Amino acid sequence: MASAAEQLAANLNFSAFAKASELKKRIWFTLGALLVYRLGTYIPMPGINIQAVADLFNQNRSGILGLFDMFAGGAVGRMAIFALNIMPYISASIIIQLMTTVSPHLEQLKKEGEQGRKQINQYTRYGTVILATLQAYGIAVGLEGASNVVLDPGLFFRITTVITLVGGTMFLMWLGEQITARGIGNGISLIIFAGIVANLPNAIVGTLELGRQGALSTLMIIAVGIMAIAVIAFIVFMERAQRRILVQYPKRQTGNQVYQGESSHLPLKLNTSGVIPPIFASSLLLLPITVANFTAGQGPEWLTTITAMLGRGQPLHMVLYAAGIIFFAFFYTAIVFNPADTADNLKKYGGFIPGIRPGERTAHHIDYVLTRITVAGAGYLTLVCLLPEFLISYSAVPFYFGGTSLLIVVSVTMDTVGQVQGHLLAHQYEGLVKKSKLRGRRR
User: Fold this and answer.
1) Alpha carbon distance 409, 420 (integer Å)
2) Considering only CA atoms, which of 95, 145, 104, 140 is closest in space to residue 296?
3) Which residue(s) pair with 254 in the sheet?
4) What DSSP line would sit under 88-116, residue for residue?
5) pTM over cut 0.70
6) Distance between CA atoms of 117 and 113, rounded to whole angstroms?
7) Which domains are assigned to the chain?
8) pLDDT > 70: what percent of the chain?
9) pLDDT tens, 253-282?
């Protein structure tokens, strides 16, 4: 027998969407914010030769700059004001979340609820400014080291570049927060999603053009299309996969009424961390490139060697990328899901797992199950993100067909659809409440 919530969800249709005025306002706001973001990716930084930047980027498109440009929605290739995109914010979030495990002050803030979360977010913003400043200065020095790119090299160019890029990153951070609060949610993820999807048509046209020129065989293009469809289907299946732990509630008496014992499920997602591990791992791999840009090609030989080894498709890049994905899959899962808190909540409301004693034993059991499924989830993420990398490395397929981009696009799409359905469901509940109130007044 379907529950009331499931029946409402099954009855959601276009007419229900047309009546949800609040949801439509949120969608329009989100689209408007993403349009502003896309316009910013076409506004170039002051003091640079746009054609020289385009030529320089085309020469290094197959390197890690291509990955950076994918996340930035093409802003790197145009050296726009949003060239840093939201990556400094993501890197700052990594650092702050790592510090919560070693800093008693941050750990205490995390336990203080909403007020503590606001303070941690403020520290993340400060960290974003610092990292964006360092990366922007590295980009300025790197551009000055390239020939004919900077019109008037010097201190003034470096200052204007830092101010422009840091301002662009902070604006995107604010825009993402506004989408989360006033739009349909997932603001930061939607900004990255918009950057990937916006250049997807160009990537498809470029791939077909390579086929027309003979650089890619027709069989390879068909194989890439089939692989993309298979990866999308695999991602959808794995993202919906759950491990349900049976939870039993005993009989309870309230006044003269006796409520029968009920059974429920504790759903544990196979991939609790979502798209965070690939994004975090990718952003960390971009940091050595920034350090190398500080030297403008005049640094020590070992730094140049490491930078070359971290290039797209290199064995060291693959190994570190896989290790980063696995690490952040476990790390982020440990942050967002606490088995001890879940066990305490079950005990508080009288729930228990059959055959497992409430309290500490229940926490150990949940942690054991969560660890096992996280192993499978980390393996799935690594497989999806690395297998297409080998294809990209040994053929001219654009980055947009990589596993990371497909994972982000599919996962964010599923989350956004879930957010929209949640708003529609809330609107349906509001309608039922209003109808019940009207019927009560008539009686």
Assistant:
1) 16
2) 145
3) 257
4) HHHHHHHHHHHHTTT-HHHHHHHHTTHHH
5) yes
6) 6
7) 24-198 (1.10.3370.10), 200-401 (1.10.3370.10)
8) 78
9) 566 665 566 778 888 888 888 878 887 787
